[in-house]
Design a protein that fits this description.
161 residues, mainly alpha, 9 helices, 70% helix
Length: 161
Amino acid sequence: MKEEMSIEDIVRNKAEAYCASVEHCISEVEAKLSLWGATSEVSEKVITHLLKNKFIDEQRYAIAFVRDKYRFNGWGRIKISMYLKQKGISEELIDKGLNEIDEVEYARNLKKLLRQKRRSITAGTDYERNGKLIKFALSRGYEMEEILRLIKQPETDDYMD
């Protein structure tokens, strides 16, 4: 006959499966454990187990989060950094993640976002249009210097390509 599993074993197995599917940080796993009804003692043991066995790695998480957000969501450094801070990731690990950004790809993503937004906005003047583009890019978490460098480029057929 099968032995009965303890609550800790059940929660640990669920947490392992949860962490094996995609990168998670400690705060996400803690929230999930809380939803599953794990006590703080069980949560602490499970988190320790997950860290020890590399199911969770905050640096790996930060790098993956940065890569996904700038590549697939079109986020800039500021927005990425803000969200990582909310998840409890240390400044050091956030910096390591942001240092992994491919600068050429990052600039290309911003160019693409600005080009798409340029096509969808209506403005009476270049000043108004540029203001809307700046506001849009800032809301995506890009830095003003990056935005201005691209907006100031002369308009041609291959503008922002």
